């Protein structure tokens, strides 16, 4: 690994929207990783003081910069717009949520995992909550209609006894060593920049949610795989940016689920089944939206 102060090894992209002081903690956790980095914060027209807090706390630095977007571009488009501005010389890019904090040594562990596996294009850490417990979606499978139904219905809990009932999330089976994974959490993803560029970046048709699964699925289609790296840990204070607009985020999540299904899976099913799956997505939205409203 290059020593700090040498050529930029990792470009870090953080898309911010009203993350408050979590953004400062996020950037600070990256800059203290003892790995050469350059951080770019794409601010999607935040209405809070998150960027001002960051700049007043850390001052000016060649290691980080802020790009103020005039409107909310959405996550995928904001990521792509940042990487289009960069010189493309970095070996890796880290796409990181603003409500995440890298625990010490985590970035080095992720980079080392990719260094040691030429067939891997993306590495994800063990994502934990404030109590240090692994969060759902840390290690997961792609959401086929059946596994998604088992997850939503709660029947996935029977998977510990009946393997056919396993849902999308595999958190209960977390390994202690680095393993290949169908998908990992999109909250923190380290990727080979060359592969990301070859894929054309993230699909900007997603507003928010499922663009990470889309990226991982396309990586697999190109013959690459993802890694889960349990020795790398990231704290995720989930939902900070979405608190100001929970209904919109919930709507975008289901739009993303529909797009993912139509893009990658729908052609495997006969016509009536396709519409049944789509109906199931929006029935789920209707059933869960009141809970989102009550919680907020």
Features:
296 residues; alpha/beta; Spore Coat Polysaccharide Biosynthesis Protein SpsA, Chain A; two-stranded antiparallel ribbon; disordered N terminus
Give a quick account of the main beta sheet: strands, pairing sense, barrel closure.
9 strands, mixed
The CATH C-level name of the domain at 10-138 and 174-240 is Alpha Beta
Please name the CATH architecture of the domain at 10-138 and 174-240.
Answer: Alpha-Beta Complex
| CATH structural fold name of the domain at 10-138 and 174-240 | Spore Coat Polysaccharide Biosynthesis Protein SpsA, Chain A
Q: For the terminal residues, how far apart are their CA atoms?
A: 44 Å
Strand content: 15-25%
Task: Output mean pLDDT.
Answer: 88
The CATH homologous superfamily of the domain at 10-138 and 174-240 corresponds to Spore Coat Polysaccharide Biosynthesis Protein SpsA, Chain A
The run of helices and strands is EHEHEHEEHEEHEEEHHEHH
Radius of gyration: 19 Å
User: What is the tally of helical segments?
Assistant: 9
Helical percentage: 25-40%
Structural class: alpha/beta
Low-confidence stretches: 1-5
- Principal-axes shape call: globular
Number of strands: 11
């Amino acid at each position: 690994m290059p020593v700090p102060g040498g050529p930029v090894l990792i470009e870090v992209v953080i898309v911010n929207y009203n993350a408050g002081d979590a953004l400062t903690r996020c950037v600070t956790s990256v800059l203290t990783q003892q790995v050469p980095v350059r951080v770019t914060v794409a601010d999607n027209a935040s209405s809070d003081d998150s960027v001002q807090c960051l700049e007043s706390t850390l001052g000016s630095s060649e290691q980080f910069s802020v790009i103020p977007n005039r409107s909310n571009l959405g996550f995928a488009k904001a990521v792509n717009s940042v990487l289009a501005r960069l010189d493309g010389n970095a070996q890796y890019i880290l796409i990181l949520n603003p409500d995440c904090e890298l625990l010490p040594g985590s970035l080095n562990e992720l980079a080392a995992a990719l260094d040691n596996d030429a067939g891997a294009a993306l590495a994800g850490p063990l994502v934990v909550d404030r109590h240090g417990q692994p969060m759902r979606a840390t290690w997961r499978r792609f959401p086929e209609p059946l596994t998604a139904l088992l997850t939503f219905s709660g029947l996935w809990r029977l998977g510990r006894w009946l393997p056919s009932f396993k849902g999308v999330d595999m958190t209960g089976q977390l390994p202690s060593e680095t393993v290949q994974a169908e998908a990992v959490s999109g909250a923190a993803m380290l990727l080979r920049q060359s592969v990301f560029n070859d894929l054309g970046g993230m699909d900007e048709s997603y507003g928010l949610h499922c663009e990470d699964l889309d990226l991982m699925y396309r990586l697999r289609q190109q013959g690459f795989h993802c890694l889960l790296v349990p020795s790398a840990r990231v704290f995720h204070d989930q939902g900070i940016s979405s608190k100001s607009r929970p209904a919109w985020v919930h709507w975008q999540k289901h739009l993303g689920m529909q797009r993912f299904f139509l893009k990658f899976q729908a052609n495997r099913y006969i016509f009536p089944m396709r519409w049944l799956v789509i109906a199931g997505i929006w029935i789920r939205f209707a059933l869960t939206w009141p809970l989102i409203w009550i919680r907020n």
